[in-house]
Known about the structure:
There is one protein chain. The protein is an alpha/beta fold. It contains 13 helices and eleven strands. Strands 8-7-6-9-10-11 form a six-stranded parallel sheet, sandwiched between helices. It has a three-stranded parallel sheet with strand order 3-4-5, with helices on one face. 39% of the residues are buried. The model has no long low-confidence stretch (mean pLDDT 97).
Amino acid sequence: MRLSAIGDVCHAVAMVTRIQSQWRDAEITWVIGKVEYQLVKLMPNVRFIIFDKSQGKAAVESLKAAVAGETFDALLMMQVALRANMASRVIKAKQRIGFDWSRSKELHWLFANKRVAATKHAHVLEGFMDFADALGVPKSDTLTWNIPVTPEDARWAEEQAKALGKYVVISPAASKAERNWLPQRYASIADYIQESGVNVILCGGPGELDRKTADAIKAEVKHPVKDFTGKTSLHQLLMLLKHAHLVIAPDTGPAHMATTVGTPVIGLYAHSNPRRTGPYHNLERVVSVYDECIEVQKGKPWKALPWGTRAKGSELMEKISVEMVKQKVEPFIA
């Protein structure tokens, strides 16, 4: 059971792929959010149950009806939010596996009868892998993601990539405005990249914040950029990210989507610890001011604080300079 968000669902896919590769006969049911389902809906041999949280109690009743008469060998409770915990009560399972004590927020521990092993300073993806460990699934030599798309979406992205040539994706909008870098600084990086002979495209979802952020960047750039914001499905976006030379993004879903298809990512972080939530396989490319921000606010270094402690403030991302990002970008466009 992992309902949201896009980035966390990407992490969960790696765990599901591990189970499928090691236990080929395993029957997997995934309770997932409505939007997130659109990304993973073509995964083979997975039965999906959509949980639309906007429906409130009706969503719980729908879930209850979907699993009526079933008893699962194990329920992996991979979301600590109280809404998910409460909904999980309608699912009958011999084992109800939840997070360890330190990660059991919002009364999560009350709904589980077994917990994963405690880990210190683990990335969210590694925390999800703890559930496969708790089941006894053998470890894999390689970390893989299996997120199929339709041939039509794959061809569409190939056509776009052919027309664009070598390109960098900027996916500038996170779910909260305070986690976004400044539009004029994104514009400066876009101009720097395009002046080196590499194209830049903007990507994002259909939400208002994504649209406003993209428009603000386009108003600042010297060289026009192609804008796909709100114009793609999740599968089309995934394939655009796959063909990209590089992705630049704050703490947002497309950064993790890009990781699943092997595209390098430069993540921009101030509020959350990228060691925990950064784009996996790309942590050495992160531009982060989190360490200094959290120490100023808490009076302690991050290692002395509870794992996952967030820095707060609407101006923290301003501490990331254009030059800091240029230094990470330069090797890709030299």
